[in-house]
Amino acid sequence: MITVLGSINVDMVTNVLKRPLVGETIEGISFKQHAGGKGGNQGVAAAKLGTEVCFLGKVGEDSPGEFVLKNMQTAGVDVSFVEKEPTNTGVATICVDGEGQNNIIVIAGANGLVDKAYIQKNADVIAKSKAIVSQFETPLEATMEAFRIAKENGVLTVLNPAPAKELHADMIQLVDVLVPNEFELETITGMPTNTIEEIDKAIDYLFALHVQVVIVTLGHKGAYRATKEGRMLFEAYKVNAVDTTAAGDSFLGGFIHSYIANKNIDEAISLGQKVASYAVQHEGAQSSMPTMEELETYSANLKQ
Q: What is the count of structural domains for the chain?
């Protein structure tokens, strides 16, 4: 079993030919509502592949909260520890253009009420897990407490530091596997990340703080894996993207599904890339993520 601590959102998605400029009004193509949130997405991605996933987070006492929880349950995520609060469920307003690129505005809602006390109440869930995965759409103090409990119990800690924020060493030292994109890596370390050489220097800084594995996702350029044993660039699969909203979350869900099963980082990255390449060719976040059967059929014809 893995535990995912993170956000649960309703995604309000508007499709447009091009994203509007400041002050510009444009006509949209379509509007849809999807279950989302970085935490929810990552949990669903892993669960749909067959991983046992227990979720820690909060929703509002409203119909969007019921909608998202039902979707997560249908995907196989255990949401029995998710609490409801007398506020709104988190909301993400997403604009997707004709090339599949997006802009996102997030309102935390109940996600902002995930606190240290809630984590302590669910410490046993974390302690029983093989790994805990978290992000930054819930308060940092909650993630730190969850990772502290995990480290005390020998549980693998995996952090997707998004949305990016500056991190102090006491947080970084609780992380075993860090999965940022290059912009998040720059924010975390305060170092430039425009080239592989610069990325390497930022990774060296993280290794000095006891991070064991860094996987930098590079969008259409692939993923860069760094461990103490070596570093390698994994080229991305060449696909025509329809909606990149959950690309990173899909990658992480696929990665953790594979990694907890066989502890092979390279195989886990490869699977994560396949899941992400499948997801970006479909609309929505959680709705775009494949089951293992769908992924196996898709992978038979996939080219890098």
A: 1
In a domain, 36, yes or no: yes
In this structure, is residue 126 part of a structural domain? Answer: yes
Report whether 282 contacts 257 (CB < 8 A).
no
| pLDDT tens per residue across span 263-280 | 999 999 999 999 999 998
Give the global pTM: 0.91
The answer for residues whose C-beta is within 8 angstroms of residue 131's C-beta and 6 or more apart is 2, 3, 155, 156, 157, 158, 256, 259, 260
Evaluate whether residue 289 is within a structural domain: yes
Least confident of 141-145, 250-254, 297-301: 297-301
* C-alpha span between 21 and 243 (Å, rounded): 20
The alpha-carbon radius of gyration of the chain (Å, integer) is 18
Q: Of 62, 200, 249, 266, which one is the catalytic site residue?
A: 249
Q: What is the CATH number of the domain that holds 202?
A: 3.40.1190.20
Whether residue 304 is contained in a domain is answered as no
Place of tokens 């996600």: 111
Q: Known catalytic residue: 97?
A: no
Which of 204, 212, 158, 208 has its CA nearest to residue 180? Answer: 158
Domain span at 214? 2-299
